[in-house]
Amino acid sequence: MRVELPDRPEHELGRVYLRGMAFDRYEGRSWSNQLSHRRNVNEDPSETFTLRGGQSHQSPSHGPVLRQLIQLEPLDTPVLFAAPFAESVNGKFPAVQSDVNGALYLPLPSSTRIEYSAVSRPHTISTDDLQPQPITYPEPFLRHFLQMPVQSERIAELARDVSESKRTAYEKAVAIQDHLSQNYRYSLDAPLAAQAHPLEEFLFVRKTGYCEHYATAMVMMLRSVGVPTRLVTGFLASEWNEYGNYYVVRQQDAHAWVEVHLPHSGWVTMDP
Hints:
With 272 residues, the chain is an alpha+beta fold. Helices cover 21% and strands 29% of the residues. The chain has helices at 139-145, 153-163, 169-183, 198-206, 211-224; strands at residues 2-4, 16-23, 25-26, 31-32, 39-40, 42-43, 48-50, 66-72, 79-80, 86-90, 97-98, 104-105, 114-120, 185-186, 208-209, 229-237, 239-241, 246-248, 254-262, 266-270. Helix 3 packs antiparallel against helix 5 and helix 4 (198-206) crosses helix 5 (211-224). It starts with a strand and ends with a strand.
């Protein structure tokens, strides 16, 4: 993939998350998307597909617009990648679809390189979410984003120990993110897939894993203390080509991270 950010000054360049799919259900060994029903995105005469506003039952706080020009090589997936959170995409597509978790799709995987632009706008942390206050969510929302498999009570105990002094959902999320970042070792060689309980193996035995182990641990720990969360997969762009002024994104840049829901801010990106 090649990604240009035509409106961002070079001195502001950093890592860029390219969001693919989000997953709401964890079965103890694998993730699935129970909100995968796709709806067509409205298209205007200029070949711009505009998404419906917000993936939350409340209006989130928005950050600055980020425009991306993307060349995507053929992949065995119909997913379109864009920075979070995409508001529109423009391209010569027969149709664009989206699901409730905010993923974008073509009707079928493309067999050739495709070019498109995307306009995204991150959700920023609202000052209202920095103050302790009662939080009320609809029951169907909680059913998806607080779901947990049968796990060891040790996971919930660890989450409580790490976050018990924190007053808000955001503070709890930062505390758990920092705990995982500072106390565990990243390795692509961690042989955790064969374990019966890979999350417990990661948290309490090996304490070594790759991005999906970190992200899964953060989601399950936050859900155990009542904070709605989901896992996201995509790419993390960090290789900047200064001669062509674009990011080069390779298969090795595939990544998993976390989105935490805050009542006033909506879904916010976090990465342990």
